[in-house]
Amino acid sequence: VPKLTDFGVVRDQHTADHMIRTGSQMGTPRYMSPEQVVDSKHVGPRSDIFSLGSLLYELLAGEPAFKGEDQITTMAAVVGGECVPIESLLPDLSREIVEVINGMMAIRAADRIDSCVTVESLLYGEASLDPEPASREVELDPEPPASEETRRVGAIAGVRAWAASIWKRTPQSG
Fold first, then answer.
1. Is 151 helix (H, G, I), strand (E, B) or coil?
2. Distance between CA atoms of residues 144 and 119, nearest Å
3. Residue 143, pLDDT score
4. How far apart are CA 24 and CA 65, in angstroms?
5. DSSP assignment of 5-66, as one string?
6. In this predicted structure, what is the pLDDT of residue 10?
7. CA–CA separation, 119 vs 128, rounded Å?
8. Could you tell me the pLDDT band of residue 135, with boundaries at 50, 70 and 90?
9. In this predicted structure, which of 28-32, 68-72, 96-100, 126-130 has the lowest mean pLDDT?
């Protein structure tokens, strides 16, 4: 049974893209958020959203979003936002999925989708993104169309597993 775990501390045994740990920095460069690369002491939940977005990009495109010849050039690509837009690789991918992935992989944490609950709502079609990335406010729709649910089942399962792992690690207030 496949299990979804923390993508930032894994090692791909088939490539040279090994997990790094330097001082307080830990993670696999192609899944690290820009803020994690720059200052891993000041990351928040949106860093996990970025990592999940990078994973969804790779699952759909069949290749990592951020590539480099080594760990340093991969981290430079992450910080510089140097990736091929997923819509260029998959021109038939729905606009909604493209917007969700792009919203998850925004370089500035403040421009990124703010939670896995929001990601799930967007994938189910229960919400839509505000066109201004700085606000990323979500408007909920009363009922998602059934056809949208069918196309998004795989991505939603991943988001739910990711959200559950974050939920377990995050202290909940009363």
1. helix
2. 14
3. 42
4. 24
5. --GGG---TTSS---EEETTEEE-GGG--HHHHH-GGG--HHHHHHHHHHHHHHHHHSS-SS
6. 47
7. 10
8. very low
9. 126-130
Q: Which residue has the tokens 């002491």?
A: 41
DSSP-assigned letter for residue 173 = P
Residue 26's φ and ψ, nearest 5 degrees, are -145, 135
**pTM for this predicted structure:** 0.65
> So what's the pLDDT on residue 50?
95
> One-letter amino acid identity for 71?
Q
Rounded-to-integer distance, Cα 119 and Cα 55, Å: 14
DSSP 80-125: HT----HHHH-TTS-HHHHHHHHHHT-SSGGGS---HHHHHHHHHT
CA gap 78, 8 in Å, rounded: 13
Residue 104, phi-psi category: left (phi > 0), alpha (psi -120 to 50), beta (remainder): alpha
Q: Beta strand pairing status for 138-140 and 127-129?
A: antiparallel
User: What band does 163 get if pLDDT is binned at 50, 70 and 90?
Assistant: low
